[in-house]
Amino acid sequence: MISAENISKSFGAQPVLQQLDLVLEPGEKVVLSGASGCGKTTLLRLLAGLEEPDAGRIEIDGQLVNAPGLLIAPHHRGLGVVFQQPALWPHLSVRQTLDFVASAQHQPQGSANLSDIARACGIEELLDRQPNALSGGQARRVALARALAAGPRYLLLDEPTSNLDFEARTGLNAVICDFVAETAAGLLYISHNESDVSQIGGHHVQLVGGRITKP
Ligand SMILES: Nc1ncnc2c1ncn2[C@@H]1O[C@H](COP(=O)(O)OP(=O)(O)OP(=O)(O)O)[C@@H](O)[C@H]1O
């Protein structure tokens, strides 16, 4: 499980997270909401290893990944992360992107698994495109496929469906729920959107005043 204990983070004089506790079990789905600017992305970046907390400790599957003087790199955390901006690798086609991720995880290139992921994410027709030839919605689906291709134990998603229409949102949420059901990955899903909350299910929590609360 992911266990974040007593996490505090400030930017300059601005406290963002204050003695926050969060637990995410394998196979568990948690949807996190909260006002704009309350610190949701900051929490995700801390769990991913892209920011260091000022105080507190984070463990992933029993391994301490963050503590004073210790920072385990993002790619050693077993996480699949999708941020609001897809940030695809501009020099790689979609197919090369998925193959690269799978080979970095020692999964066979071109495996049935990658075909399944591409089909589930609705990007089979896009495999030979470069990122600059994708629409915003297509780029988001590729970013999700890239995260799934790594076979993560935990999936951390920052508003993966924002700016998508209802049909596209519903389709992407189904892919995410299927992945969690099939792999028992833990899911932390940031969204303000009521339809995401109901489509994802699981637990719904809010970030208020730098801490996790029930809505
Ligand atoms: N690197 C940084 N330097 C200074 N301030 C930052 C930095 N990153 C985030 N902040 C500030 O921290 C606060 C929390 O930002 P964060 O992006 O985590 O919020 P959020 O809840 O994800 O917002 P949104 O829902 O609008 O995406 C904001 O006030 C933001 O301006």
Automatic annotation (TrEMBL):
Q: Which SMART domains match?
A: AAA
What molecular functions are annotated in GO for this chain? ATP binding; ATP hydrolysis activity
SUPFAM superfamilies, alphabetized: P-loop containing nucleoside triphosphate hydrolases
Pfam families linked to this entry: ABC_tran
Q: Where is the ABC transporter domain?
A: 2-215
List the InterPro entries hit by this protein, alphabetically: AAA+_ATPase, ABC_SmlMolc_Importer, ABC_transporter-like_ATP-bd, ABC_transporter-like_CS, P-loop_NTPase
UniProt keyword list = ATP-binding, Cell inner membrane, Cell membrane, Membrane, Nucleotide-binding, Translocase, Transport
Q: What is this protein called?
A: ABC transporter ATP-binding protein
Q: Native species of this protein? A: Marimonas arenosa
